[in-house]
Amino acid sequence: MFQANQQFNHATNFFLKNVQLKDFIHHRQIKITAHHTHTLFKFETAVKVSPLSGLALLVFKENQQYLLDGEYILAPNTTFNILSLSDDVLVQLSTKTPQEPQLITIENDIHVTQHTVKIQVQELLTAVSYQFQEFHQIEVKAQAHYELLFVESGQLTINHATLTKGQAILIAPNTTYQRLYDASEKCLVHTIRFNATGIDKRLVNTILDISTLIAPLLDLMHQDFTAPLQADYLSLHVHSLLIALNQRLIEPASEQTTSMQEKYEDELFAKIIDFIHSSDITTLKVSDLVQQFNISRSTLQHLFNKYQHVTPKIYINQLRLEKSRQLIRESNLSITEIATQLGYGSLQYFSRAFSNAYNVSPSEYAKGYAKRL
Known about the structure:
Elements lengths: L14 E2 L9 E7 L3 E7 L4 E7 L2 E5 L4 E3 L4 E3 L4 E6 L4 E7 L6 E10 L8 E13 L3 E5 L5 E8 L2 E3 L2 E3 L3 E5 L5 E5 L5 E11 L9 E3 L5 H7 L8 H21 L8 H20 L7 H8 L3 H11 L4 H19 L4 H7 L5 H12 L3 H11 L1
Antiparallel strand pairs: 1-7, 2-9, 3-8, 3-10, 4-7, 4-9, 5-6, 5-8, 11-18, 12-17, 13-16, 13-18, 14-15, 14-17, 16-19
Helix pairs in contact: 1-2
């Protein structure tokens, strides 16, 4: 990938304007394959440079570079060359009269500065959430793909490594391992299997702290992947997570913020939580928090990532589900009425969210509670 910040100033640089293009009647076509050069062209008259196919780069003796994305008229005696940015590059040089360029050798080589895309998520294969409330152990057979496991709640042991909330492990392809779920509390684990290239070997088969990166993935894992583009969003966030983890290896995290900043964030988040719990949870929105505390959505997201390892939306939804359990226990409302009162769009959506959170449907929970009375 080529990147540049290009500034054009016709008064001072190499380009001419207000020139009759029809006057450039002598043409030569050049196939460009080189990504570097130590030779420049110099025409005594103006020359029109036209791209015919592929992506090319105009380079000058002054080490300036311009993407050749249209026709340019170069001033007489301009020293330049053209380098390739893609396959099958073909350009045309045109002059008003027959011209042979002077070839000028320069001391320092001019080359294309390109940034290679290293990490690529090629294909998502599965996205599965596992919930366990009892001891469970399984041997996972080797597969020819990566598997990302991350813990939302509870405790998970992979071979002899134990993961807790906000931690993940990236299993390398062709790895057989033991997966053990603790029975002491409900365990909610998400796994995503995918094919990818460019992943640093230091990231695989080791515990990763993704507590500050996990929120977007958690949001998506609680949504319906049959909806349009949801799988594309998931692929995007997996890609972003891998890039962020790889960046940590290249540029270790800087020191923690100052104690003053820590204190400010502690106090602000405590106020946000107090506000949420004193509000009507059935109508509360994330935008209400942004407006109430005059902060950006990114700041709010950062605070919830830091202190709760979930997004504000997930936190509010968890409180709504707790409210639904309370209403089931303490009110005479039907399940449908409770779903409507709490703002769920449909009974089916409410039942699915309730079951995912508590591993039991709302109706089963109501029956079980009635039997205990």
